[in-house]
Amino acid sequence: SVYQENFNIQHSPLKIGHRGAAGHCPENTVASYKKALELGAEVLEVDIHLSKDDVLVVHHDPTLDRTTSGKGRLRDYTAAELKEFDAGSWYHSRFKNERIPLLSEVFERFRTEAGFLIEIKHPSLYPGIEAKLAEELRKYIGSASFNNPIMVHSFDADSMRRFHLLMPEVQVGVLIKRRINDEALKEIAKFASFLNPKQTILDSKLQLRIQKHGMKVYTWTVNNKKRMRMFEKMKVDGIISDFPDYFSD
Ligand code: G3P
Ligand code: CA
What we know:
Layout: H1 2-8, E1 14-17, H2 30-38, E2 43-50, E3 56-58, H3 79-82, H4 103-110, E4 115-120, H5 129-138, E5 150-154, H6 157-166, E6 171-176, H7 182-189, E7 194-197, H8 204-212, E8 218-219, H9 225-233, E9 238-241
Parallel strand pairs: 1-2, 1-9, 2-4, 4-5, 5-6, 6-7, 8-9
Antiparallel strand pairs: 2-3
Helix pairs in contact: 5-6
Domain GP-PDE: 13-249
Protein name: GP-PDE domain-containing protein
GO molecular function, one term: phosphoric diester hydrolase activity
């Protein structure tokens, strides 16, 4: 499709706001995504889980305690129950009206302005989450108001392989924190378009090895300006940051 073609000829690193603009706002909230776009992010990184009633919701941790007024596992609450919780006050009282967004709400609100990098969190906790996401994306892909890059990544390579089979038109990536050998790279390259390394393990040598296997490199989470300039010079394909204001113009 047109949006994927445009996206494939991109040359400077794609500017990806981590959980929105998590350095400025409570992560993964509407306020955070709005801020990320104001600061120049092109793509929003969005972490997803499934509620008790199998609705895709946007949140980082599998539990509610760190970033909301709720307690315990997200999976134990319906989407309506999750909406009762305050997802902003932990960060600052001025965000007290923030709620846990549904993925559909984030798409509806931002699809005309932003691309999306969706991270499936802990897919082993949510059997069937790949099919749910494919079903949700099918509502939008190809529509005129969704003309931005959309990608899916996860630390779980098997989940990405499953998603790729369900929806080959959406590019997937695998996140890694540790070094990786060529054999593993070759396996991942069979279905993935990206291999997204933690910034502490990424150097030119690893970048070249990933690119030689035909995959793009999105590195995370780059929150230091000097490191940001270095990765921009290395011409990585994308940079994921809590501070979209640090990206070069
Ligand atoms: O974008 C990569 C990064 O988001 C993965 O780690 O824990 O921040 O979701 P995490
Ligand atoms: Ca993430």
